[in-house]
Input
Amino acid sequence: MTANTSLPPTAVAAPAIAAGPVVWLRQHCFGSASSNFISVLLAVLLVWLGHKVLVWAVLDAVWFGPAEACRQASGACWAVVAEKYRLILLGRYPFDAQWRPVLASAVLLALLCASAWRRCWRPWLPLLWLAGLAAFGLLMAGGMLGLTKVSTDLWGGLPLTLLLSTVAIAGGFVLGVLLALGRQSPLPAVRSACTVYIELVRGVPLVSVLFMAAFLFPLLLPPGLQVDVLLRVLLALVLFTAAYNAEVVRGGLQAVPASQTEAAKSLGMTYGQIQRGIVLPQALRAALPGLVNNFIGIFKDTSLVTIVSLYELSGALSLALDSDADWRPFKLEGYLFIALVYFCFCLLLSLYSQALERRQPQP
Output
């Protein structure tokens, strides 16, 4: 009887995987006759359109000069931005004191950058925010330390947009988390109150909320008591944003398995310990894309405050050009500049959220 001997398996190299832009184009754009036709047609259209945009926006554009030079040119008139940039970016703030909103905006941007840096996620960060917001208010409002007083109706442009969006995002996030926890509370009164508030606010547009905060809310105050319109608008934005954030956070809370909460209770952990240490970290990680989407939306929706005579970026642009007949025909270039500013801020926020998702450990 002969022994059954088997030869050791021979190593076989893994099949080579073709990659690269040429391979991607061949697979996705030129896989069939119809794909070839559509791809070539779109490429020709994009080249033609890109050439038209390049000629209009760059080659034939007027970058500096009077309005008469723009009327004679066939391209874009970027000179309107060079001529009106102070009014667009800083609104109606007094000309001789415009260094103050510039410095205030720098303070607010520095706070945002510090908050995005993980090494600054320390217990002193909220105190730094309180000091920074106090410095922002002092620089913008004045009335102290030798600074002339400037009323809030003269605030505008980029500083106002940054203030509105920052307060709405931060306040709306904190209140939204509390509302989401309240909507899942075992207490019927708390759960019902949070549910009614969320559904009521989400059922009305932001324009109506701003209108009520600016024009109807003062009618409910006692005679002689007045609240600045900027404070009323900030409160309205926070309350509106919180309702939308609450539903996003509630979706993240539902993604956390109930078994983890039950196990934590069996270990004797309190409700606060369970939420801080187990539930909220996972829920907020799952809800991060939806939250960032809401943050970007409210940043752009701050342009609606123009209806209550607060002239942020887009409102300041209309204010700058409507009052000047020479530059009024070149609103398109002005709005493209404003769109670029909004796009840059939204893109940075989106990229940061993606980086934050990659850094987070997977559950």
About this structure: The mean pLDDT is 86.
